Amino acid sequence: MKNKSLTVVLFVIILLSAALFIFTRSDNPPVPDGTDLYGSNQSVTATSDSASDSFFGKPSSGEEPKTSTVSGAASTEYEPVFPVNIGSEGIRQPVTLHYLVPEELRETYATILDSLEKYENEINFSKPVNEDLFLRSIILVRDLNPDLFFIDWSLYNYKATPDDNVTQVSFTFFYDDVPSKAETFKNKVNEIVSRANSYPNLFERELFVHDYLVNNTVYLVDNADTGTAYGALINNKARCEGYARAFQLLMLRLGIPAYSVIGTAENERHMWNAVELYGKNYFVDVTFDDNSSENTLTSFTESEIGHSCFNIPNEVLTKTHSISGSGSRDKYGAYQNLILPECSSYEFNYYRIRGLTAENSEQFKYLLEKNASQKRVCVFFKGEMPTSEKLQSDFNDFFEKLYPSSGYSIYYTPSTSPVFQRNVYEIRWTTTN
User: Fold this and answer.
1) Angstrom distance (rounded) from CA 228 to CA 372
2) What is the domain-level CATH number for residue 312?
3) CA distance 173 to 171
4) Greatest CA span in the chain, whole angstroms?
5) Are residues 399 and 311 in the same domain?
6) Which pLDDT band holds residue 432 (cuts at 50, 70, 90)?
7) How far apart are CA 426 and CA 433, in angstroms?
8) Full-model pTM
9) Cross-strand pairs, 410
């Protein structure tokens, strides 16, 4: 009798738990049911190593691989001079950024995204939407879904009631044959992601994508779709927005949360990225690291590509960039940076991982000697950047030690360069008799 009573109690508990689960899930807003461009139905569920099955659930960031210095004791917590080994890790599942959408925008966001993923360019809302909520939802659909390459975001039109509620919105597509272009785009994205996933960890996969875009994209502002990931990956032509959208899309496909950031650089409107790597945020600006000539595809090696904007914190980025305020509006009235991560870490900065960080003259001269066979080195100075005169003096000391009977011709980063301003110093030399 006692066992039977226990069975009944357990059965009631199970029924109550199930009812509670159903009640909890019933509050979720409508979920887009379109299959995304990558065949994984990623628009519906955020999938990761242990992701929530809710459309707006945050995916797991996974475990960070172990790191260790290659040689020597660290002189600071950032281990100048000595390279860092990053352990291997498994391939991550793609992630979405839907979890970043505020609760009050989720229904409108989901409705817009669902229609656009079905290639519908006109959307009628079942009930009027407050105009401000609508405008913020539009920006989030654009900024969190770089795979929507076929939409001209500058040309959407909407109808509003006298009390500022939106009932309908229509979009302009760049192309007539969107499904065909989507298939081409999907294949290219899958190819790049597959190549990136052949590398052992997220840092190396991120670096591969950065260097791939530098070598396979030329900077161009003329064509309408150069502000899209399609322009960068298929046409190999992009302005800053196209670089940023392509980088963001490929990061998401690799399981790395990535965002597009708006601001100014060199007194012009500009866009770049923020990435979340192992729980810490960094800025990445592929456009600024691509210093190749216009209309010229390149085949630079890693050591020949600039990385002064690869995984850098705010204090380095803002020496040459200005970040628009979170939720501010541009001159056209559009919202900017509704998602704006705080980036403050050096931990996975390119130069730290590669052992190319210095804090003083001795470390700089050590790196010159270490790279003497290539007669070229790029060094990131953590802290205050030495003057050009001091760097030249340190080079002379190094050169006289290694080549006492030779002269040299030299190239080094001028102090007026944005790269120098971001604390990166490149030096190349040849010996002469």
Assistant:
1) 41
2) 3.10.620
3) 6
4) 103
5) no
6) confident
7) 24
8) 0.84
9) 429
